[in-house]
């Protein structure tokens, strides 16, 4: 997971979550992280497993999830998966 910071003749330049720099990503390697409020997701809970919920808020790269069991929590982007 990373953020596009520039483009060059080889593609796109990205800074990855752990600080690594990738300087030749093709457009086909990219995917949008824009997720609409109300989207059904699977989100990582404190037990390390993915649980179903609904996206309620977004603040930068953090997502506030209303889990189906009634609990609510902030989850980092890396802990989110879209439901098929």
Radius of gyration: 15 Å
- How far do the termini sit from each other? 20 Å
Helices and strands: which structural class? mainly beta
Which CATH class of the largest domain?
A: Mainly Beta
CATH architecture of the largest domain: Roll
CATH topology of the largest domain: SH3 type barrels
How many strands, what sense, and barrel or not for the largest sheet? Answer: 5 strands, antiparallel
SSE string? EEEEEEEE
Tally of discrete structural domains: 2
* Strand line-up across the major sheet: 7-6-5-4-8
Q: Which residue ranges are poorly predicted, with pLDDT under 50 across at least 5 consecutive positions?
A: none
Strand fraction equals over 45%
The number of helical runs is 0
The best one-word shape is: elongated
What's this entry about, in short?
The chain contains no helices and eight strands. The protein is mainly beta and 84 residues long.
Protein architecture, described:
- With 84 residues, this protein is mostly beta strands.
- It has 2 domains: 1-31, no CATH class; 40-82, SH3 type barrels (Roll), CATH 2.30.30.140.
- The protein has no helices and 8 strands.
- The strands form 2 sheets. A 5-stranded antiparallel sheet has the order 7-6-5-4-8, with no helix packed on it.
- Strand 4 and strand 5 (50-59) form a beta hairpin.
- The model has no long low-confidence stretch (mean pLDDT 84).
Record keyword descriptors for this entry.
84 residues, mainly beta, SH3 type barrels, 2 domains, 5-stranded antiparallel β-sheet, 3-stranded antiparallel β-sheet
